[in-house]
Amino acid sequence: SALEDLGVTQPDQQPTGRTGGRVWPELVRFGLVGLVNTAFGFAVFVVLQLTLGRIVHYLVVLVVANVIAILWAYVLQRRLVFRFTGGWWSGLLRFSVVYLGAFAANLVILPALHELLHIDVIPAQAIATVVQAFGTYLAHRLFTFRAPGTRPADADPAPSVLPGDDTPR
């Protein structure tokens, strides 16, 4: 089942997976780091919108804010949430693919809320942020931060590597 793939087990079952079946501490870390990441990314968007919003279109502001926020989020989630030690650049690529999907959703949600429902840009972005946040945990758990060639529940951290160097140490 999908829950078993995440390492969630029934009380009488032995936990499995790279977290030793302890998905809940990982979810708590994801939630806490996600709050920090969301606040940071939203703050970057607000600051850029308030400073550059009269000069450039709000979607340009959204692109710049997302690039900054994604780099920040990758570092925190890699170290604090998933404790991933695999290749830095390949992990960033997978992480970016997940956020490209979330960004694509944001490009639909924000204009829909602003242009169609006439919600101001900043509150509309707050709504869009909440909506897109739900799927990213599963995407990162099942795709971004798992060892290559493993099922999600069997994923073990890869050997430690240095940033930019995919050679195990």
* Major sheet description: none
| Protein structure class | mainly alpha
Helix content estimate: 55-70%
Residue windows where pLDDT falls under 50 for at least 5 positions: 1-20, 152-163
Strand content: under 5%
Order of helices and strands: HHHHH
Assembly type of the chains comes to single chain
- The chain-level mean pLDDT equals 78
Shape: elongated
- CA gyration radius, whole angstroms: 18 Å
Number of H/I helices: 5
What is the strand tally? 0
| Beginning-to-end CA distance, first to last residue | 35 Å
What does this protein structure show overall?
- By secondary structure, the protein is an all-alpha fold.
- It is 66% helix and 0% strand.
- It is built from five helices and no strands.
- The protein has helices at residues 2-5, 23-52, 58-81, 88-116, 121-144.
- Helix 2 runs antiparallel to helix 3 (58-81), helix 2 (23-52) packs antiparallel against helix 5 (121-144) and helix 4 (88-116) packs antiparallel against helix 5.
- It starts with a helix and ends in a 25-residue tail after the last helix.
Key descriptive features of the protein:
169 residues; mainly alpha; 0% strand; elongated; disordered N terminus
